[in-house]
Write a structure and sequence with these properties.
The structure holds two protein chains of two kinds. Chain A is an all-beta fold. Chain A is built from no helices and eleven strands. Chain B is mainly beta. Classes of the chains: A mainly beta, B mainly beta.
Amino acid sequence: GESVGLHLPTLSVQEGDNSIINCAYSNSASDYFIWYKQESGKGPQFIIDIRSNMDKRQGQRVTVLLNKTVKHLSLQIAATQPGDSAVYFCAENSPGGGADGLTFGKGTHLIIQP
Amino acid sequence: NAGVMQNPRHLVRRRGQEARLRCSPMKGHSHVYWYRQLPEEGLKFMVYLQKENIIDESGMPKERFSAEFPKEGPSILRIQQVVRGDSAAYFCASSKTSGRYNEQFFGPGTRLTVL
């Protein structure tokens, strides 16, 4: 079946280093992707999104890269801080997939080491 | 400007009881989405509603689950005759407009535990 998923369940990085979180998707019709951050006991928080007519999009300390050839998405966090500790989900919304419900991957738990 | 509100935050029910989860969207938002999250899993879409209308319920289990978003008041997700497998976190999101590129704002969730 078509799905959105992540390669690694846990990623541990040193404070100050850059983090890269990966996501693979299988629906070639997907054309809109969003990264969410979920802290313990809270709801997902929007980080950044990208449409398929772009390869790269930058925000504050975050960059999302989209490789449509291999159906791969990544989130880069620069100079990781303790507050970045959370589970990160990629989500997609594909055309023809019903209304506006998002399809989420399983998530990557980012752990920041001092 | 308050965000999406959900209550209760934690709900404990015994098997066979009913669970009612409430969601108040952000001010000015008329689109509501419900998602379910099992432990160590991503969120799974359940239903999308606008005021007084169910737009897409393709993710809702066929039995025991229902949702509504009345003209006045919060959206309600209702689970009848709960079973242990219903234990999960239920999140509500709202958006100002419809459309595939609208941003959905999530509430803090209701954590349902079925004993």
